[in-house]
Amino acid sequence: MAKTVYQRPKSLKEAIFHYCPGCGHSIAHRIVAEVIDELDIRGITIGVPPAGCAVLAYNYFDVDMIEAPHGRGPAMASAIKRALPDRVVFSYQGDGDLAAIGIAESFHAANRGENITIIFINNAVYGMTGGQMAPTTMLEQKTTTSPLGRNKKLDGYPVKVSEIFSQLRGVTYLERCMVNSPANVNKTKKAIKKAFQCQIDGHGFSLIEILSPCPTNWKMSAVNSCKWIDEVMSKEFPPGVFKDNIYAATKTAEVDS
Amino acid sequence: MNKVLMSGNFIICEAAIRAGCRFYAGYPITPQNEIPEYMAEHIRKVEGGVFIQSESEIAAINMIAGASAAGLRVMTSSSSPGISLKQEGISSMAACELPGVIVNIMRGGPGLGNIRPSQGDYFQATRGGGHGDYRTIVLAPATGQELADLTMAAFDLADKYRNPAMILADGMMGQMMEPVIFKKPKPRQYNEKFMLRGAGKGKSKFIRGLLLDPIDSEEHNWKLARKYEVITKNEPLHEEYKMDDAQMVIVAYGTAARIAKGAIKRLREQGMKVGLFRPITLWPFPEQQLRSLSSKIKHFLVFEMSTGQMLEDVRLALQGYADIKFHGRPGGAVPTPAELANVIARVYERTINN
Ligand SMILES: Cc1ncc(C[n+]2csc(CCOP(=O)(O)OP(=O)(O)O)c2C)c(N)n1
Ligand code: SF4
To answer: How far apart are CA B113 and CA B97, in angstroms?
Structure first.
């Protein structure tokens, strides 16, 4: 009998992703679904997709989902979690969604220490609307609204979400990862699993930032996009664990009980 | 049941909690601050009750949308500028057919305006307010008792039609102390199949407003429109006061209607045959009910604490069958009953006694 070494995660529907070839959303979806399977939480997970390229995530994830208006995912997710504290709730957001229009909702959900998980796809552009400048666009990077390259005097600087959010005392676990190589995909999956586990154990807010290729709007091949993450993006946004208070949270929980 | 004396904003909260509201989110703004303050203390005392002081009105409306999807009875409140910020969320709740109660304790506008009672948000409330083809059920209480009864009714209507419902009151209603009896709320009737609580072992569900295919989207719009038609047919409410022999009808809602009642009492003492038609639901507007008066009565005067918004609905209802005058006090100005009586008396002299 043949041994199955690779199959569709149960938490993904049998639908073909609409994402462009080489897009990081597809990979992120898959590993989130694998984690949901491995933690056996499909039946108690509620996801909140954003306005952004991942707006149709409910066509792919086989878990309960509710679409949020652009940027408002963390407000919805906070409320769902408060209403149903024993469910696992995650919000899935792009960089425009999280760091521009929804910065307040994201920041304050983090600061309240909501026991939710944010999967944050940083692809340095607004994918869905056609490649406009995002808060995370690199200096000098050309986009449709920074045709001469992002100019720090006119457009400000790339927003470092992980660095900033890790300062908030409400945050328990925060890691920045990449999905531009098999090894990095594995690392990202581990981080996502840790974040979900952190939530399941009741330890509070977790956020996983994922540097994610958008070959279409970067106007690069899929391979070059992965290289660009290594050579350019990860220099501005270095991967790593920015906050891990899980151990401390475990200790506090022991004292509390 | 005990009669208690409470201010309007507290009455709304107490009625909401008794009606089973278990999730409240809001952001401070005068003249409704008593609502988040009361909720912070009291909703948390009931089992499962959640209060969140949100970072903005935008967050608050999306929080109640989330908690509504999760199956709770939910409420948010604000005053005019904050209600403007909630509009995208209200539109989204209507699109996703999520029930929820939104309280607007109106203040003077436009812009920051002032914190005095006003009725300038009628258009915003009754026309949907946000983008797209949708409607919000709008209830306009005029007494402390109605604040309680209509708040409870708003939860029932929101559930029944799976649509946001709004309590439209103003700073005067919110601050005024009045006696109230809290009636026994009806048990909640809301099908679990509309709730999002995790798929369990079953099929997963999703709730969305985005419909990329225009044909799907058109069908969804017509489905909502059919629902709004049913609401328009079944739910209009109004009150008539001293209408039996009236030759002139004042049309007013909320605080303006209270002032009008005081004015009408004075005018009646002077022998003027003036009555009041008070819409209680602003959407659906009691259009047929108002129109049916026009076969007997030919003189109407609309009084609003605005430059004339409900006036348009009165015109639509009366369709030119009667003469319509208007008196307005916008921007936070509130006339006394005596002042309004003088205005009405002048019109009455010119039209009826002529
Ligand atoms: C209130 C509002 N403003 C603007 C939009 C249009 N819009 C949809 S997605 C998006 C940006 C998406 O970019 P990002 O969040 O980075 O996600 P990506 O598509 O790159 O995954 C914008 C501006 C909207 N849906 N709602
Ligand atoms: S536009 Fe970019 S982010 Fe959107 S699907 Fe295509 S590659 Fe992915």
So the answer is: 32
CB B26 within 8 A of CB B60: yes
**Bridge partners for A211 per DSSP:** A122, A178
State the Cα–Cα distance between residues B109 and B103, nearest whole angstrom. 17
Query: Under DSSP, is residue B5 helix (H, G, I), strand (E, B) or coil?
Result: strand
Is residue B40 classed as helix, strand or coil in its secondary structure? helix
Q: Are A37 and A61 in contact (CB under 8 A)?
A: no
β-strands B73-78, B164-170: how paired? Answer: unpaired
* Interface residue ranges in chain B relative to chain A, Cβ cutoff 8 Å: 22-23, 25, 50, 52, 54-56, 58-60, 62-67, 69-72, 88-89, 92, 96, 196-202, 204-210
Superfamily of domain A25-256: Thiamin diphosphate (ThDP)-binding fold, Pyr/PP domains (3.40.50.970)
Q: Would you state the structure tokens that stand for residue B128, as one six-digit string?
A: 């949907």
Q: What is the mean pLDDT of residues B121-134?
A: 96
A51 contacts on B by Cβ (under 8 Å): 210
Indicate which residue's Cα is closest to atom 6 of ligand 2: A20
Does A71 sit in the ligand 2 pocket, CB within 6 Å? no
Residues 6+ apart with CB under 8 A from A4: none
CB pairs under 8 A between A and B: 124
Beta bridge partners of A119: A92, A208
How far apart are the CA of A128 and the centre of ligand 1, in A? Answer: 6
pLDDT in tens, B193-245: 999 999 999 999 999 999 999 999 999 999 999 999 999 999 999 999 999 99
Q: How far apart are CA A57 and CA A53, in angstroms?
A: 9
Instruction: Name the residue ranges covered by the structural domains of chain A.
Output: 25-256
Q: Write down the pLDDT at residue A164.
A: 98
Estimate to the nearest angstrom the gap between the alpha carbon of A24 and the chain centroid. Answer: 10
Q: What is the dihedral of CA B61, B66, B72, B74, to 10 degrees?
A: 0
In A71-94, which positions are buried (b, 16+ CB within 10 angstroms) versus exposed (e)?
Answer: bbbbbbbbbbbbbbeebbbbbbbb
Strand segments (E) across chain B: 3-7, 21-26, 50-53, 73-78, 100-106, 137-139, 164-170, 177-181, 206-207, 238-241, 248-251, 274-279, 281-283, 299-304, 323-328
Q: How far apart are CA A113 and CA A66, in angstroms?
A: 21
Of B67, B199, B210, the CB nearest to A83: B67
Nearest CA in chain A to B90: A69
- What value of ipTM does the predicted structure carry? 0.96
Q: Are residues B310 and B279 in contact, defined by beta-carbon separation less than 8 angstroms? A: yes
- What are the structure tokens assigned to A80, written together? 């769902």
Cα separation, A90 vs A99, in Å, equals 17
Q: Which H or E element spans position B28?
A: none
Task: Report the residue from B63, B206, B209 with minimal CB separation from A75.
Answer: B63
Flag whether pLDDT at A257 surpasses 60. no
A66 touching chain B per CB within 8 A? yes
- Which residues lie below 8 Å from residue B105, measured CB to CB, with a gap of 6+? B9, B31, B32, B35, B77, B78, B79, B169, B170, B171, B173, B174
Three-state DSSP class for residue B238? strand
B143 phi/psi in degrees, rounded to 5: -140, 165
Sorted by where each starts, the structural domains of chain B and their CATH numbers stand as: 4-234 (3.40.50.970), 239-351 (3.40.50.920)
